[in-house]
Specification:
By secondary structure, the protein is α/β, with parallel strands linked by helices. The protein has 6 helices and 9 strands. The chain folds into 2 domains: 66 residues, Rossmann fold (3-Layer(aba) Sandwich), CATH 3.40.50; 96 residues, Arc Repressor Mutant, subunit A, CATH 1.10.10. The strands form 3 sheets. The protein has a 4-stranded antiparallel β-sheet with strand order 4-5-6-7, with no helix packed on it. The chain has a 3-stranded parallel β-sheet with strand order 2-1-3, with helices on both faces.
Length: 172
């Protein structure tokens, strides 16, 4: 399910928008100010943000600037992923990834605070025409584990959530 973060200080606008988005099957999160929006954005990694530009305290433009200046380097033990440079290192050595492997890893890292389903990965990496080809994901996850995990048979970075999907464990 795709998640939308609505950021608006006017409860009437939120109340007008939310029912139609929920009816379309979206998971909705709401923030009524810029500070709460930044917190939810980091925590939830939404697929889309509907952002009011004119709000008290932290206005929309300031929220955008802080979202853009977020850290793009994720470090977990001996694994470093720099999303702005498309660079992955393990134990200080550059790891060569195919474009598909990198795209799947980027999806997991982008949504590192939650689970990403195989269908979501397929739709975002291969496109909606491949939505039923979730077996592609299993093969890419297996190759990523071989390249990134200290012990691929006991992964610590790319975890499987049984019957749900995959999670990037960044707490290592």
């Amino acid at each position: 399910m795709q998640r939308i973060l609505i950021v608006d200080d006017d409860p009437g606008i939120v109340a007008a928008i939310m029912p139609s988005l929920k009816a379309q099957g979206y998971d909705i999160a709401v923030a009524h100010d810029g500070d709460h929006a930044l917190s939810l954005f980091t925590q939830l990694a939404p697929d889309l943000v509907l952002l009011d530009l004119v709000m008290p305290s932290l206005h929309g433009i300031a929220v955008l600037r802080r979202g853009r200046s977020e850290q793009t380097v994720i470090q977990c033990a001996d694994l470093v992923i720099d999303t702005s440079r498309r660079l992955v290192q393990r134990q200080g050595q550059i790891v060569s990834l195919t474009p598909i492997e990198y795209a799947v890893l980027a999806e997991l890292v982008t949504h590192r605070n939650g689970v990403v389903t195989a269908r979501q990965i397929v739709q975002r990496v291969w496109g909606p025409q491949y939505i039923d080809s979730t077996d592609y994901v299993k093969g890419v996850i297996r190759r990523l584990r071989l390249k990134l995990e200290p012990d691929p048979s006991h992964p610590r970075y790319i975890l499987t959530e049984p019957h749900v999907g995959y999670r990037f464990n960044h707490s290592e």
